[in-house]
């Protein structure tokens, strides 16, 4: 038997055996019930299953309560009787009941996590790894990437939904908007997507619909990032293409990395900081923006580096993505539109061939139309929005969000910036003679710096504590990391293939990249 066939067969056997073990555990699951009855109160709680096989698996919970004043399921207020899905990660469904006399009692439905036992964990890991390798070998690296994204980020996103975070507000806007469209914010793409999924009866609750939208957004983010890395690698021409499985690992690392916060966590634990995050998991609108921004950046690069090819198609694609990205969240648009304008101006000063008119039609015109409407919707006189109060405005306020509101000193502001961008900065500086001519790196740096200037020098009034003008730095930083990682991988491959001596610039950059990933993973696991 050939090695390839042997590996495929082994993966198939592992997947089947692990799947049978998981199926057997699932068949042993039974409903469970908790009761507490006295002369003055009655508590009856049920769960559809007494065990879950994997993180983020949901169970149906029902409750019938009498003689109570308040009841909360996993921190969310409920009425005295009803049913809901509970998708807690790591903790069982928990009710907090306040009785008529003011006494509080916590009732926990003892749903066990089968994956917390050695056999359950081994079976789950074997099934996921076996399935991932199987689809990767039979279909390709993109299929493997999808499996890993679902496994890694499904529970992570489900936990964020359970914790509430920004999901509570946006899901509330979506719920109210089904009766009153004025509850929709001007960046309504997440809300209408969740509403559409819910009203199509594909999801039982608006929260679950939002979770599905988020998981799909993460899958598209992974595939779009993979395509960007793959395309940049092939654009080099003189370099042998890197294996797609390397890009799978790179994409997963990119979707997990964050600032190197260990220094501040050690000396200022629990204090406010000025870190810039390439990945945030708690905000649905910025998560939906990310795949659209990556695709928009990719299409613009195509237009700039291949100015004579498929311009009409690329212009329509870029204009569509500009509109969608702005309706998801406008922060990336208000960074990339000025960047494209500066690139066009620069092209008149230097021999830099780009399709100027097409870029104006693809980015600047649709961006201006949607942004003007959004600004008028939120800040215009006589607006009817329910999500913004009267007399709101954007003000010029240097470092207001970080220093004035969050009390971060200027020294820590600079240190936090360095800890947030160390890897891409090292790559750009140490290879300055080459990187200054790299269109993808220069454009990603320009967009990020414009977004950074907006975050540092402007704020909202009176809602300055929300930090809404900082979101552009996160998307810009993710794309900057992605382009820098592709450049780093190609440099490493070049050193290996040419059997060159140790390149200390690459070693330092590799250590920095590892620190960005490891530090963030440790923080996520300890949260």
Question: How would you summarize what this structure contains?
Answer:
Helices cover 61% and strands 11% of the residues. The chain has 18 helices and 12 strands.
Any descriptors?
alpha+beta; four-stranded antiparallel β-sheet; 18 helices; globular
Report the portion of residues in β strands. Answer: 5-15%
Low-confidence stretches at least 5 residues in length (pLDDT < 50)? Answer: none
| Total number of strands | 12
Would you tell me the overall average pLDDT?
A: 88
What's the SSE pattern? HEEEEEEEEEEHHHHHHHHHHHEHHHHEHH
Ends distance:
47 Å
Please work out how many helical segments DSSP would assign.
18
Radius of gyration: 25 Å
Please identify the structural class as seen in this structure: alpha+beta
> Helical proportion?
55-70%
Q: Order of strands across the widest beta sheet?
A: 1-2-4-7
Quaternary assembly: single chain
Shape: globular
Largest sheet, if any?
A: 4 strands, antiparallel
């Amino acid at each position: 038997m050939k090695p390839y066939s042997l590996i495929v067969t082994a993966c198939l056997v592992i997947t089947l055996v692990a799947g049978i073990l998981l199926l057997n555990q699932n068949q042993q699951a039974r409903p469970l019930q908790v009761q507490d009855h006295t002369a003055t109160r009655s508590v009856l709680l049920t769960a559809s299953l007494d065990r879950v096989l994997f993180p983020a698996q949901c169970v149906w919970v029902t409750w019938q309560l009498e003689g109570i004043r308040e009841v909360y399921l996993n921190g969310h207020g409920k009425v005295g009787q009803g049913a809901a899905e509970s998708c807690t990660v790591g903790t069982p469904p928990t009710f907090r009941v306040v009785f008529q006399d003011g006494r509080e009692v916590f009732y926990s439905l003892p749903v066990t996590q089968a994956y917390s036992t050695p056999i359950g964990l081994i079976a789950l890991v074997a099934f996921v790894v076996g399935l991932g390798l199987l689809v990767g070998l039979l279909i390709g690296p993109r299929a493997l990437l999808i499996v890993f994204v679902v496994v890694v980020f499904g529970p992570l996103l489900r936990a964020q939904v359970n914790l509430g975070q920004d999901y509570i507000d946006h899901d509330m806007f979506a719920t109210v908007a089904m009766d009153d469209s004025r509850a929709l914010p001007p960046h309504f793409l997440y809300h209408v997507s969740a509403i559409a999924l819910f009203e199509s009866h594909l999801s039982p609750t608006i929260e679950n619909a939002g979770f599905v939208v988020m998981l799909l957004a993460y899958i598209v983010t992974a595939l779009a990032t993979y395509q960007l890395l793959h395309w940049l690698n092939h654009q080099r021409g003189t370099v042998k293409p890197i294996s797609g499985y390397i890009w799978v690992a790179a994409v997963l690392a990119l979707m997990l990395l964050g600032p190197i916060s260990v220094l501040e966590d050690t000396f200022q634990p629990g204090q406010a900081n000025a870190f810039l995050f390439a990945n945030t998991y708690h905000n649905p609108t910025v998560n939906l923006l990310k795949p659209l921004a990556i695709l928009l950046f990719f299409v613009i690069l195509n237009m700039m580096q291949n100015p004579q090819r498929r311009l009409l198609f690329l212009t329509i694609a870029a204009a569509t993505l500009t509109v969608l990205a702005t309706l998801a969240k406008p922060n990336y648009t208000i960074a990339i539109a000025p960047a494209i304008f500066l690139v066009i101006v620069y092209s008149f000063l230097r021999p830099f061939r780009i399709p100027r008119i097409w870029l104006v039609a693809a980015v600047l015109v649709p961006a201006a139309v949607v942004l003007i409407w959004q600004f008028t919707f939120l800040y215009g006189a006589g607006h009817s929005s329910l999500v913004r109060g009267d007399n709101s405005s954007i003000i010029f306020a240097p470092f207001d969000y970080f220093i004035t509101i969050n009390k971060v000193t200027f020294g820590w502001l600079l240190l936090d910036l360095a800890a947030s961008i160390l890897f891409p900065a090292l790559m750009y500086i140490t290879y300055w003679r080459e990187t200054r001519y790299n269109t993808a790196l220069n454009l990603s740096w320009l967009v990020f710096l414009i977004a950074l200037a907006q975050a540092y020098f402007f704020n909202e009034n009176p809602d300055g504590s929300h930090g809404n003008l900082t979101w552009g730095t996160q998307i810009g930083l993710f794309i900057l990391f992605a382009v820098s990682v592709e450049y780093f991988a190609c440099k490493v491959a070049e050193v290996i293939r040419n059997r060159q001596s140790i390149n200390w610039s690459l070693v330092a950059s590799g250590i920095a990249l590892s620190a960005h990933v490891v530090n963030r993973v440790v923080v996520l696991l300890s949260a």
